[in-house]
Design brief:
β5 and β6 form a beta hairpin. The strands form two sheets. Strands 1, 4, 5, 6, 7, 8 and 9 form a seven-stranded mixed sheet that branches. Strands 2-3 form a two-stranded antiparallel sheet. The chain has 140 residues and is of the alpha+beta class. The chain has one domain: ph1033 like domains (ph1033 like fold, Roll), CATH 3.10.590.10. The protein has three helices and nine strands. The mean pLDDT is 78. It is globular and about 40 Å long.
Length: 140
Amino acid sequence: MSRRWVWTARPEEFEGGEPRIPFLRTGEWTCDPGTHRGDLALLLRPDAGITHLLAVRSDPYPVGTPYRDFDGAAVCCFGTLQRFARPLSLDALRDDPELVAWSALRDDAARRQARVPDGVWNALLRRLGVGDGRLLAPAA
């Protein structure tokens, strides 16, 4: 069964609003061990909001070499499906009555990844202008 995630980028991973490592098409990202190939993820930048829709292209595997604080972390390969012309800001997310109870917002986007419940996923996609919110829902 496919799942939906929000992956949070740290501010130091961006320089002048652009990623320090060019990952706009494909790359690796730290992911929850419960992530699977075929899942979808929204990229959340605390300074800019939700900026990208990503497709998970691999099951998780451990980082093989020490790299900052990611040693032993699970990573997944991904591909970018869409870069949003109008990102959805953290302030807009927190002000939305339909999203206010979402635990990822209460955690102040501090976690690197969080599972997104179906109702929240649909609301986020609607606010990002993606069809009726179910257009990109993965098949079970």
